[in-house]
Design brief:
Helix content of chain B: 10-25%
Oligomer: heterodimer
Distance between the termini of chain B: 70 Å
Number of helices of chain B: 9
Number of strands of chain A: 21
Structural class of chain A: alpha/beta
Strand content of chain A: 25-35%
Number of strands of chain B: 21
Largest sheet of chain B: 8 strands, mixed
Number of helices of chain A: 8
Shape of chain B: globular
Distance between the termini of chain A: 80 Å
Order of helices and strands of chain A: EEEEEEHEEEEEEHEHEHEHEEHEHEEEH
Strand content of chain B: 15-25%
Order of helices and strands of chain B: HEEEEEEHEEEEEEHEHHEHEHEEEHEEEH
Helix content of chain A: 10-25%
Strand order of the largest sheet of chain B: 10-11-13-12-14-15-18-19
Largest sheet of chain A: 8 strands, mixed
Shape of chain A: globular
């Protein structure tokens, strides 16, 4: 049995929320020792994801990821969270994978290890010098998770711990459909009662909730909950979800959000139609979808064509609440930057320019998610109308996209905090 | 200057009829009063409270931050814990918000409560049974695989009682874990042992440690679980009330301890040449005996907390307990509060070498942790004598003494609430007494924190270091 002195690997905190930072420290190494720090995650759908960085220990035999330079690997430079955001499927994995936590009541487990030498592959065949397991949670202790099946509306409501009442959020994801809870549970962990809404199942357009009233009912469910403050509700939407957000804010006579967050937004919505109309227009223009040399579908050009049609535009000048528009400048799925430009322009012209706040990030794609989650440039996607899966190009380069996720999340929370938690009562508009 | 807050709009009356209780599944439903009428008039709904990390190891610090109140706002921050046996513990402190409307417990002073001054972890170490609880309780986690849950809340004003009859402004739930993720808990029953092994997460191999508790017996797991969370494979051993003693009525002999050592030494995930031993109180007596006299055990280092080297050299547990029992007939003191002081049982420190462990023969580093206000065991006097013996024998370079004024006998992992006296049934008596442990809360809590940090450093240095001892 080997009796050599083992190095000590510690990761703090060992249990954290997914938007919290980690301190990864290796001690007791020989000075000037080249090592590889590695992270491994086995997803719920049983794929493996990994990241690694190359380091050299200092004269005390220490490597501190938060302070030292990674000189190679899936990330370089001083990157305290590189072992998480630069993760990608291990070699040999299927193409087009995406990492999303479906069961938020359990944590994501990551195995952090330190290996001797500068390694780039074959981690599984080697024995690390030391390893530690950490938990990353989308739900803080005490957050309540409530299944909602009410007024025909389906989704999950997350309530922060404490007596409440709390400001509320209606949270909508995009055209992939299904019920994604992780952003809502994280928002509840940050003090907002958040309702993750399911409005259609991927690929099943026939079952889709298409009527405007569905979304208005969803908003009311949040508003009427005894632990939610009825006049402090916002809407959070990404992609297709942000189309609904903009539409609700502009057109609904029932729904009065106090503020909206739109990630990768669009302001296109065929007038007088329900959600079905949105998909119809896309189908009509599907010849404009560009397929790149890798076989990836980029919808950006199709989107540009669609938004040229003025009758497709939502009357954003009718919006009366603060809007935070978050965009990636390398969004290949939708011309969301151009849309955000137009929204800002139109609202400015209507004297409401001060309601719009914009965040746009270079080399960032369409899927701007909570921080430290891996970047996906292209993933398998089942379109609402198509029966087959395609590989959808979202855009973005890993490092800038991850920086954007980290920065935008902080600013989104700050925006929501300011509008939904502020002590000042909002001034009435004249 | 307090700014008058505009009233929040009153809720519509029909909300009161809504049956809220069935919607909530979390433990907090029992903590907070859900009746709507209390919520209507609260002016400070927007108070933000965060505790980071919300899930921490029991020896990790947290930061309690209150934001978004008006400058000068007076508040009480309250901690509530309901332990496994159903008793509730609470702590509270009074704060006044600064000019930015913030209170940061790690930077701002408490103006009163169960602790005062700047005390980052005061909400934990000053926990005490809620009013009306029977005396003599001790807060100890039995199931280490689940976390301690503590509810931290903010109440308006500087309050000292009646917290359970009010709804706080805001509250969060904090988890405190004895086990890091994937630390493995393995019950050990082979070879007649009653023990539990905790293995750190990862492949190992890891240095090992044998962990012994005191005169109450039973199998206590939490310290071993915590040490395993720090990378040490830790075996906690019941040597006073193991299965074999309960069945036969006979105390174990030293071979029982050596068997436990062997289990560790031979474990494929333990570095056999890097094993330490740690004992508290009676456990420290056993530890010293084994460290000096065992031919089988080759220890890398030894830690004795609130221990004493006075015991008959011949024999083992039976003889030691008899020695204590005999002395207890004449040397037990009882104070005005009817609390029993066993401190004098082993005093005066004998000069007869047959009555104390010959620490001059020790060949590995020894760390002694001593509370100078220990009312249960003469740890301080013993430490002085041990130092003298080792100086005479020429091995005092192996000795480190951590001696804490106003700390008592029960020096536990950090932030464990201090208990002055508890209902205690030792294996030598037939009835429970109120044993006095000693210590003043603030000093004792500081001692726990300092001693733990230094114990971990001592273990790290000796278990991971490359220096060899004299064997």
């Amino acid at each position: 049995m080997s009796q050599t002195v083992p190095p000590v690997l510690s990761v703090h905190p060992s249990r954290s929320l997914v938007d919290e930072k980690l301190k990864v420290l290796v001690e007791n190494l020989p000075p000037g020792s080249p090592v590889t720090l590695h992270s491994l995650h086995r997803s719920e759908d049983e794929h493996y994801w990994e990241a690694y960085g190359h380091y050299v220990s200092d004269h005390r035999g220490i490597v501190s990821v938060a302070e030292d330079l990674s000189v190679g690997g899936t990330y370089t430079g001083i990157e305290s969270m590189g072992l998480l955001w630069s993760m990608r499927p291990v070699p040999g994995s299927r193409k087009g994978l995406r990492l999303r936590k479906m069961n938020v009541r359990s944590p994501m487990l990551f195995n952090i290890s330190v290996y001797n030498g500068l390694i780039t592959e074959g981690f599984r065949e080697q024995t690390p010098l030391a390893s530690a397991l950490i938990e990353r949670w989308y739900m803080a202790p005490g957050v309540q998770r409530i299944d909602i099946r009410e007024k025909g509306v389906r989704g999950t409501l997350f309530i922060p711990p404490g007596p409440g009442p709390f400001p509320g959020l209606l949270d909508m994801w995009g055209g992939g459909g299904g019920l994604l809870e992780y952003r809502s549970s994280l928002l509840a962990s940050r003090g907002f009662a958040s309702f993750a809404l399911e409005y259609f199942n991927s690929g099943e357009l026939e079952s889709a909730e298409l009527e405007f009233s569905y979304f208005e009912n969803a908003f009311s469910i949040v508003k009427d909950h005894p632990q939610v403050i009825p006049d402090k509700i916002g809407i959070f939407g990404l992609s297709l979800g942000s189309i609904m957000t903009v539409y609700l804010a502009a057109e609904s006579t029932i729904v009065k959000p106090l503020c909206c967050v739109c990630v990768s937004a669009s302001h296109f919505y065929p007038p007088g139609k329900n959600l079905h109309g949105v998909f119809e227009v896309m189908t009509m223009n599907s010849h404009m979808i560009r397929v790149d040399e890798n076989g990836h579908h980029a919808w950006r050009d199709m989107g540009l064509e669609i938004i040229k049609e003025p009758s497709n535009r939502i009357n954003v000048e009718k919006i009366n609440c603060p809007m935070l528009l978050v965009n990636g400048l390398d969004d290949q799925n939708w011309p969301s930057v151009e849309c955000a430009d137009e929204i800002a322009q139109i609202m400015s012209a209507a004297g409401k320019g001060d309601l719009v706040t914009r965040l746009h990030y270079p080399d960032t794609g369409h899927l701007i998610e909570p921080p430290f989650s891996p970047h996906f440039r292209a993933t398998k996607f089942k379109t609402a109308t198509g029966k087959q899966k395609v590989i959808m190009l979202w855009g973005g380069q890993t490092k800038p996209h991850s920086d954007a996720q980290e920065d935008s999340w902080r600013k989104i929370l700050s925006f929501l905090q300011h509008h939904l938690y502020s002590r000042e009562t909002p001034k009435a508009r004249m | 200057m307090q700014r008058h807050q505009s009233r929040r709009r009153r809720r519509r009356p029909n909300r009161l009829k809504r049956n809220v209780s069935k919607l909530f599944a979390s433990p907090l439903q029992h903590t907070f009063d859900l009746s709507a009428e209390f919520r209507m008039d609260r002016k400070q709904y927007c108070v933000k409270l965060s505790v980071q990390p919300s899930r921490g190891l029991v020896d990790e610090k947290f930061i309690v931050l209150v934001q978004n109140v008006s400058p000068g706002f007076q508040m009480t921050i309250h901690a509530l814990h309901k332990c496994e046996d159903g008793h509730s513990y609470e702590a509270f402190a009074h704060y006044t918000a600064n000019a930015t409307g913030t209170v940061n417990v790690s930077e701002d002073p408490s103006l009163g409560g169960t602790y005062s001054g700047v005390e980052q972890m005061g909400l934990l170490w000053s926990l005490r049974p809620v009013p009306g609880t029977k005396p003599g309780l001790r807060l100890r986690k039995v199931n280490v695989q689940t976390p301690m849950e503590v509810t931290i809340s903010v109440y308006q004003g500087h309050q000292t009682e009646g917290f359970m009859d009010q709804v706080p402004l805001v509250g969060v739930l904090v988890e405190r874990w004895y086990m890091a993720p994937r630390v493995r808990r393995i019950p050990i029953t082979e070879n007649g042992l009653t023990a539990t092994l905790f293995l750190p997460s990862g492949l190992g191999p890891f240095p090992g440690l044998l962990d012994l508790w005191g005169g109450e017996g039973k199998l206590i797991e939490y310290r071993a679980a915590l040490l395993a969370s720090h990378g040490i494979a830790c075996l906690t051993l019941d040597y006073l009330t193991p299965e074999i003693t309960m069945e036969t009525g006979k105390m174990v002999d030293s071979q029982y301890i050596e068997t436990a050592y062997r289990v560790l030494e031979q474990h494929p995930q333990v570095l056999g040449s890097r094993i330490a031993m740690l004992g508290l109180s009676l456990g420290a007596s056993v530890t010293l005996k084994m460290a000096v006299y065992s031919q089988v055990m080759k220890l890398r280092c030894v830690v004795c907390i609130s221990g004493c080297h006075v015991q008959p050299i011949d024999g083992f547990l039976e003889e030691l307990l008899n020695f204590c029992r005999i002395n207890s007939e004449t040397k037990t003191r009882i104070n005005e509060e009817d609390q029993v002081i066993y401190h004098d049982l082993l005093l005066p420190i004998p000069t007869d070498p047959a009555l104390k462990v010959d620490v001059g023969r020790l060949q590995c580093p020894l760390l002694l942790v001593v509370g100078e206000d220990d009312q249960n065991w003469p740890a301080y006097e013993s430490a002085i004598d041990m130092k003298e013996m080792m100086e005479k024998a020429g091995n005092s370079h192996l000795l480190t003494v951590l001696s804490y004024p106003n700390a008592g006998h029960l020096i536990e992992p950090p932030y464990t609430p201090h208990t002055l006296a508890t209902a205690f049934l030792s294996v030598t008596s037939v009835k429970k007494v109120m044993a006095l442990w000693g210590g003043e809360t603030v000093a004792h809590s500081r001692a726990q924190e300092d001693a733990w940090r230094k114990t971990l450093a001592f273990l790290r240095e000796n278990l991971y270091g490359s220096s060899n001892c004299g064997f």
